[in-house]
Amino acid sequence: MTLAKDACLAAIAEHSAGFAAASRDNLAAPVEHCPGWSVADLVWHLTEVQWFWGTIVEQRLAAPPDESLRPARRPDGELVAAFEQGAERLVRALAAADPADPVWTWAPAQADVGFVLRHQVQEAAVHHWDAAHAAGCSFTVDPAVAADAVEEFLTFSVSSDADPAEPGRPALDGTLVLRATDVGTAWTVTDGAAPGTTRWERGSDDGAPAVTGTAWDLLLWLYDRVALDTGTLPGDLLDRFRGLCFTD
């Protein structure tokens, strides 16, 4: 894990609080990138996500929690307060755990609290963006936090040798670069060893087509929240990359 535990905890707390503030008086607004959802639906979604992972970490579960234990959705007037309570519980559970403690995750390559800690940063930050966008607001994310989230996405949310897409998908059959202007870091993505997988490494292949922006821009682009200039990428290469991503 690149970010220290305390930095992850601070980011989860910060973006959970920002998410609540952006949502509180805007529950009926539509969420552009979650078709058919209102902000109220988004609040309930993130409440469920944080309950799920908070329960796994709190109880050091080796399997997902029993669905019968999942809390019922609160009335809209109680949604934000319930979310805030759940976010505080998640942060407490993660703070009390060792990142090396084994728990169930959906990632074959990392079944420990450290995976949950790192992934919940971007879960909170991206949905904070969704809620802020629905309210017509904007915010920035610490560049180091965003850069780590880009690496986490490339590691766990794109088909790889450790976690190949099933069923198989067309190979990337090329190279592309993500270049973060604010942290002076680039990531080169190429084909993995197995068909239909990828691998990445820090650094830039100067001859490869690139997508450029701040680290936060790049993360939002990976989640298909914003458009960036992809003019140097052949359209078919971009389509194949998108096809190898597990999260859109």
UniProtKB/TrEMBL annotation:
The keyword Isomerase applies. Gene3D superfamilies: dinb family like domain (1.20.120.450). It comes from the Bacteria. One of its GO terms (molecular function) is isomerase activity. The keyword tRNA-binding does not apply. Coiled coil: none annotated. Keywords: Isomerase. Residues 10-132 form the Mycothiol-dependent maleylpyruvate isomerase metal-binding domain. InterPro entries: DinB/YfiT-like, Maleyloyr_isom, MDMPI_metal-binding. Signal peptide: none annotated. PANTHER family: CONSERVED PROTEIN. This is Maleylpyruvate isomerase family mycothiol-dependent enzyme. It comes from Nocardioides jiangsuensis.
